[in-house]
Amino acid sequence: MAAYSDSSASEKPHITVVRPKFLQTVEKSNNIDASSSNNDDSETPIFSKRKILLRIPDQYKGDFMHLTVSKNWLVCLLAAPAPATQITLLRFFLLRALPPGAIALEKYLAGYKIANLFLDYTGHHMLISLIPKSPGLLADFLYIHATGPKVRRIEKFKDHEITSVAFNREYGTESSTGPILLGTNRGLIFETELTLEAEKPSYKKQVYDLGLGRPKYPINGLEFLRVPNTNQYLIIVAAPDYIFTFQETLRSDEKSLQSIFTGYVNGTQSHGFETAKTDLNYSVLKLYAQPGEKFASLWGWLCGSGIRHGRIAQSSITTEKFLLGDDLVPLDKDIEQRKHLSSEERRLSVPVSFVLTEYHVLLMYPDHIKGICLLNQQVVYEEYFHEQMGKLLNIVRDPFTGSVYVYTEKMLFSYKICDEHRHVWQIYLGKGLYDLAEAHAGDDKNKNLVLESKAQAAIQNGNYMAAAEILADTNNAFEEVCLKFIDLQDKRPIITYLRKRLDKLPTENNEEQLMVLVTWLVDLYLTEINYPGRSKAEKEEWQIAYDEFMRQFSVVKFVRANRATIHKLIAQHADNHNLAQFAIANEDYEEVVLQHLAAEKYLDALNILRKQKDPELYYKYCPIIMEFIPHETIEVLKSQGRKFQVTKLIPTLITIDTPLHIAEVTKYLEYCIYNLCETNTSVHNYLVRLYAQHQPPKVIEYLETEGHDASLVHYDINYALCVCLQFKVHEACVFLYCLLELWYDALDVALRFDMALAKATASKPKDEETKSELWLRIVCHEIEGTNDVKKALDLLNECNLLRIEDLLPFFSDFEKIDDFKEPICKALKVYNQKIQELQHDMAECTKQSERVQNDLENIRERCLIIESQEMCNSCDTYLLVKPFFVFGCGHKFHADCLEKSVVPHLISEESRKLTMLKQQLESMLTQSAAMAENSKELQKKREKLKHEIEEIVAADCPYCGLMIDTIDQPFVEDWDQVNVDWE
Q1: Strand pairing partners for 87?
Q2: In terms of domains, do 965 and 890 share one?
Q3: What is the model's pLDDT at position 794?
Q4: Rounded CA gap, 722 and 688, in Å?
Q5: Is residue 483 over pLDDT 80?
Q6: Element (H, E) at 284
Q7: Of all residues in the chain, what percent carry a pLDDT higher than 90?
Q8: With contact defined as beta carbons under 8 Å apart, do 484 and 459 qualify?
Q9: In sequence order, which residues have a C-beta less than 8 Å from that of residue 954 and are 6 or more positions away?
Q10: What pLDDT does residue 983 have?
Q11: Nearest in space to 245 (alpha carbons), one of 218, 266, 264
């Protein structure tokens, strides 16, 4: 079990480490932090070393050989001091005070020495690489699972020294490694899978050869990644002088990694590679991922020239290069300088290993640890290890928690990383990377410094607009910033700054500041709009910006509360357009209209009327505007549709009686009647008058459109008639007389100018007598005094109501009969035919009356015999038990059964009459019972009532009469009630 010496290690923002309270605390080590020139002594160091005490059982003694950590599982190899040969593998869980798992390995290491120790991401699969001590043996490696003491020698990889392992985070579990990659000292890459149950690997595949037959070309680093949310896989391989990259997209169900290398093996793809000049026979590859994340974000490669590092593409990679950036952290002495050093000096001047953090790299030299910032290559931490601590062996990082560990032969240390990004913003600021500096600045004070520097750089480059936007986000004094831009000829920077400050200004309790900003901005905008020499395009651009500013919510709110101030300011600039716009924005339309009328801008005034919603302003100002632009006024009125009361609007339009004005008003009335379906009588009357006075032919068109039904027309017929008589629109007068059924007046008017119209008018009455009289008037008008026989005969042919005898009185007594011979003969033939028809009808009537008389005599002698067993056709009981009725058809009914059958079919009037008669009869029966003797008069009345009742009830047989008459009526009237009854 391990113990961390610093109980505050859990303060790291991205991991939480629980430390047992019984562990020993070790003093803090001395270190330097030079990440920033303005650090003070009280600032917490970025890196601080803490000693970890492992509770190693007493029976296991010795020095550390190898150590690695993953997911808080720490695995180490201890070698007992000489002359003992005991080598023990211990496995600790750093968060629990449990005894470690221990496995003795000496019996598996005869003739071998341990080259390296590998631990998977779950902390359960351990690989130990073995190399022979003496000739005759082949390289080998051991596999150990955390749950059992059994050590397996992997025979399939005999003669392959494993120098690096890429474990599988996607498919690796506690019981199986999943497909993993193994790199050897000859540049070979194998794929295999190791499991808890199987004694041997399930398979062994050589997937690639980087050594190309060379006896020694070690693979010093091997990493395997999967791009998030894709099936694209990346593999990074590091050799002493090269770093290689492979990528491929696999099927979703494909687990084997061999397919990644297939395209590279057959030559269809070429792997990406980076080379480095080196004098080292090794290199170190490390990746950095946020604790708990599977996909790494940074890569680092230790080679002869230093630490090369950069980012890894975080999304799907479409090119071979996914290792982005290639920055170099140089070593203390470059390759050329190291050539002149002794072997010992050269060994001490080159790092043995390193680990990456988010912004730093921790380099492990043979005798010290050095921390360097990746952004500015400045040393932020350096500490030497004295001989009593033992030889420095390695520095490792737990990929799950992000904890960094350094171990010597005798001791184990952890490194606490405290707020390592604290000075990153200053580094970015120094490089002029202002956006990155702002993103990492943290508190408002630092952000303000970054923004000030960014703005100052923009000012130096002459980019005042950008500077204004930046300074608006700072807390610098308002006056100080304004002085930077106030003298510039270009006012856009100061406007930009003021607007951004206005946007950030809280609306509550800041009335004075709001007034200063808004009024100043309005003044600046109006000054720029009306600046002498401005082109039309420039004015429009400034006007658009001003309009957009005036629509802001905070500005609108302020302006409504301070209308007088803003109105006065705009008026001082003599800007009529914006003054009008301001009035419109505040819905003071009448003032705008008056301004335009005063300036004789009638079209502008009309446009303002169109924008507002108060119809009273139309009634008030349309007469004035109509006088000057009648056509435009009418078009605007038409565009408003039903917004107005036409009866209120029309009287205001006739101000000038010119043809143009009258034509436009007429057009508007037609629009109201035919498009808006206006039915007001006064509107229609007005249109009739305009038509009669100025366009007489249109009167009859309008009247025909309204129709020939006097009850449905929308105009006043009498008024229209008076107007048409006044302006002598004769055809319309005839139409209107006919509508009033004043046929004689209509005919008199028609006879004055159009005989065809007169004849059509005479044919309109439905009364034949009236129609005949009208035609006689036409005859009198045409014939009287002329004795024109031909014309008379033509009229006789046109009207079938006229007879020759009707025309004869209009001729003189001395007219020759020869001219009338044919029509007289024709008339006589017609009369003769009618006489014969009447005689035939009289004979038929006589015969019919005789037949009826015979039938009546036969009926008197007819009788019906009623048997005792006869049944009522309605209730199927004996007929003679109650009063009954017998019909000629043979059907027989009790009196009450007959009444029940007939009453539902009676009309309401007959039903009421029957009820009244029955009440009267009942009343008489009551009176006769009270009287001692029935008077004859009362008895006659009673018999009369009974007779009337029988005439209603027994008027017809229900089966032979009523049922036949009501055959088309439905059986069921109320289906809802039927449904309720059935339920």
Answers
A1: 79
A2: yes
A3: 55
A4: 11
A5: yes
A6: strand 284-288
A7: 22
A8: yes
A9: 885, 887, 898
A10: 63
A11: 264
Contact 598, 551 (CB under 8 A): no
Residue ending a domain, among 769, 795, 813, is 813
- For the chain, how big is the Rg over CA atoms in Å? 60
Largest separation between any pair of C-alpha atoms in the chain: 179
960 in the same domain as 883: yes
Decide if 545 is inside a domain: no
- Looking at residue 909, what is its pLDDT? 84
- Residues whose CB falls within 8 Å of the CB of residue 539, separated by 6 or more in sequence, listed in order: 529
Going by C-beta distance under 8 Å and a sequence separation of 6 or more, which residues neighbour residue 593? 605, 608, 609, 617, 621
Show the domain range for 786.
Answer: 743-813
* Concatenated DSSP letters of 614-665: -HHHHHHHHHHHHHH-HHHHHHHHHHTGGGS-HHHHHHHH-SS--HHHHHHH
Nearest partner of 320 among 217, 259, 208, 243, judged by Cα: 243
Residues 6 or more apart whose Cβ sits within 8 Å of residue 470 = 451, 454, 455, 458
CA atoms of 884 and 950, how far apart (whole Å): 11
Residue 113 has φ and ψ, to the nearest 5°, of -130, 155
813, 835, 853 - which closes a domain? 813
pLDDT band at 191 (very low <50, low <70, confident <90, very high): very high
Pair 74, 91: CB distance under 8 Å: yes
Mean pLDDT confidence for 65-80: 94
Whose tokens are 């070393």? That residue is: 49
Amino acid at 249: T
When mean pLDDT is compared over 107-116, 342-351, 650-659, the highest value belongs to: 107-116
Q: Which helix (H) or strand (E) holds 597?
A: helix 589-598
Confidence of residue 807 (pLDDT cuts 50, 70, 90): low
Tell me, yes or no, whether 809 and 875 share the same domain. no
The confidence score (pLDDT) of residue 763 equals 72
Residue scoring higher pLDDT (5 or 827): 827
Residue 81 carries which DSSP code? P
Quick count: other Cβ atoms within 10 Å of Cβ 233? 19
The helix-helix angle for 681-694 and 717-726 (nearest 10°) equals 20
Same domain, 962 and 875: yes
pLDDT band at 731 (very low <50, low <70, confident <90, very high): confident
Q: Write out the two tokens for 675.
A: 């498009």
- Take residue 415 and report the two structure tokens written for it: 């490194």
876 lies in some domain: yes
- Which pair of structure tokens corresponds to residue 597? 């009328």
Strand partners, 205: 191
Domain count, the chain: 2
For residue 176, the 8-state DSSP code is B
Residue type, 542: W
How far, in Å, CA of 39 to CA of 250, rounded? Answer: 51
Residue recorded with tokens 């201890």: 78
CA atoms of 854 and 837, how far apart (whole Å)? 26
Return d(Cα 576, Cα 193) in angstroms, integer: 85
CA atoms within 13 A on the CB side of 105: 30
Q: How far apart are CA 725 and CA 720, in angstroms?
A: 9
Residue 317 belongs to some domain of the structure: no
Q: Which residues pair with 226 in a beta bridge?
A: 233
Which residues face 272 on adjacent strands? 245
In a domain, 534, yes or no: no
Three-class SS of residue 416?
A: strand
Q: How far does Cα 864 stand from its chain's mean position?
A: 90
